[in-house]
Amino acid sequence: MKINNLDISSMIIDLTSSGKMLRPAFFLLFSEFGEKKRSTKDLIPLAASLEILHVATLIHDDVIDDSPLRRSYPTIHTKYGRRNAIYAGDYLFTLYFELISKNLESNTDILRNALSMKKILIGELDQMLINFNVKSTTDMYMKEISGKTAELFSLSAAMGAVVSDGSAELITRCKEIGHDIGMAFQIIDDILDFSNSAQTGKPVHEDLKNGVYSLPYILGLEAGNRQLIDILSKADLTAEDDSLATDIVIDYGYLNKAKDIAKTFTEHAVEEIEKLPKNKNQKVLRAIVQRLVNRIK
Amino acid sequence: MKINNLDISSMIIDLTSSGKMLRPAFFLLFSEFGEKKRSTKDLIPLAASLEILHVATLIHDDVIDDSPLRRSYPTIHTKYGRRNAIYAGDYLFTLYFELISKNLESNTDILRNALSMKKILIGELDQMLINFNVKSTTDMYMKEISGKTAELFSLSAAMGAVVSDGSAELITRCKEIGHDIGMAFQIIDDILDFSNSAQTGKPVHEDLKNGVYSLPYILGLEAGNRQLIDILSKADLTAEDDSLATDIVIDYGYLNKAKDIAKTFTEHAVEEIEKLPKNKNQKVLRAIVQRLVNRIK
C-alpha cells in the first residue's frame, strides 16, 4: 500500500519485524473457547486490527518521547520524519476503525473496541502523572499500565471469546485473563528492564533519567524511602546516583516485592484459565503464563 | 472532563471558540430531508462527533505545521505542549469513534464513517505531494481538498440523510451536495486568503513561503507560466518575489479561473439542492451557497 510515495506496509514491517504479535496471537488463542468454530483465515482482519491499534500508539509514543530506537530498529519518525509519523499513526487508527467496523457483527462489539481504545489513550495520558513524580503510588502505576498495556490484552482475549460466540460468562473470564496476563507482562517487562540495566551496568537507566519510574522504584517511593526519594528528586542523575538507587531497590526488597505482585497476577490468571473449556489452547495459555513467570525466577 | 489535570473541554473550547461549527450544522440541516423526524437533542452526540473528528485533525495538523495560531488563538501545542497535543488529538479520535458506535444503528453507517475518516487522513497525506512541488496539477489539488475538506462535509450531509431514514437516492444526493459545497468552501477560502494577503500587503504569503500552493497558483503552474515557475522554484521567497507572483496570478487570469471553478461546484450544488424535498432547510441551503458565492464576487 503506497500513499504519497511512502510505503505504509514497509513502515509497519519496520515496526513489527522484531515484534511478537502477542495481541493477535492472544485473540486467535481465545477464539477457540466459544461454541462457534471460526477459520483462522476469517479472523485475520480482526487479529491484524489489534496489532495495528498497538502499532499506532507505539508510533505516537515514540514521537512524543522522541525515542530513536524501538526494538533495536530506528523509530518511524527517525526514519521518515515527525510529520509522516504522526499521520501514519492517525492513518493506522482509521485502518483499525475500518477493520473493526467491517468485521464485527454487532454494534455492542464495535463499541467495546471504541471504549478500549479510549481506555488505552487515557492510560497514555495517565503515564504523565507518574513521570518525574516522586509521589507516584502503586495505585497510579497500576491504573496506568492497566490502560496502557493490559487493556489491549484484555480486549484481544475478549474479542476472541466474542467471535466464537462465547457466553457472557466466558467473555468476562477471557477479559479478566487477558487483563491479568497484560498486567503481569508489563510488570515483568519493567523488572527485566531494571535487572538488565543493573547487570550490563549501563551508565544510567534510560527510563529513570526520563523520569519514568517502573514498579520497583515506585514501591520504594511509596514506602517513603528517604534516600531513594532524595536521589530521584535530583534534576540530573549521575551514574553514581543510578547505581545507588539500584542498590536501594534491591537491598530493601522492592524488586522482590514487584516480582511478588507480578506473581499475584499470573496466579489469578492461572485460576481463571483452569475454568476455561478444556482444549489444547487452555494448555498453551498455561504454558505462556509459566514462561512469563520463569523470566523473573 | 479532566484527564491528567488537563481540561480537555477547555482545550476544545479553545479550538472551537471562534469556529463556525459548520459540520454539525450541516448534519442537522440535512437531517430533515428523510422520512423520520428526529429531535435535535437526539442528534447532538452525532453532530458533536463530526466537530470532534474535525478538531482532532486540526490539532495534529497544527503540531505538524508547528502553527502558532489557529483562528487567531494560540494552538493547542503552543499552549499545552506537543505531547498533550498529540495525545489530545488521539483522544478525540477515540471519542469520535465512541460516539459513532454508540449512536449509529447499523454497521454500514459506522463503516461509512470509518471510510470517511480514512479518506480524510489520505487527504492530509496527499497535501504533502503538492507542498513545494512546482509540478502540482489541478487534479492533485482537487484530490487533496476532496479528502481534506470535502469528505467531512459530504459525510456530515450523508449522515443527516441516514439518521432521518432517507432513501439510498437521497443519501447519495446529500453526499454530493455536501461534497460540492465542501470543495467550493475550500477553494473560496484559498482565494480569500490570496486576496486578503494581496490587499493587506503582508510581506510574503505565509502559505506560499511554506510551499503550500493554493488553486490560483496551481493553475499558473499547470499552465506552464515560466515566470511563476521560476519564482516558486526559488529556495527563499522575498517580498518582491511574492508581489510579482501575485501580479502574475491576477494578470494572467488564474485568480478568475479559480473563481470560475468554485462557481462550477456551487452551481452543481444548487442543481442538486433543487431536487431535495421542499422545506425550509432547502431554502437555508440555497442561502448558504449564495453567501458562499458572494464572498468572491
Automatic annotation (TrEMBL), chains A, B:
Needed cofactors: Mg(2+)
Domain of life: Bacteria
Keyword vocabulary terms for this entry: Magnesium, Metal-binding, Transferase
Pfam family, one: polyprenyl_synt
Molecular function per GO: metal ion binding; prenyltransferase activity
GO biological process terms on file: isoprenoid biosynthetic process
Family: Belongs to the FPP/GGPP synthase family.
Protein name per its UniProtKB record: Polyprenyl synthetase
The species this protein was found in: Companilactobacillus mindensis DSM 14500
Lineage, broadest ranks: Bacteria, Bacillati, Bacillota, Bacilli, Lactobacillales
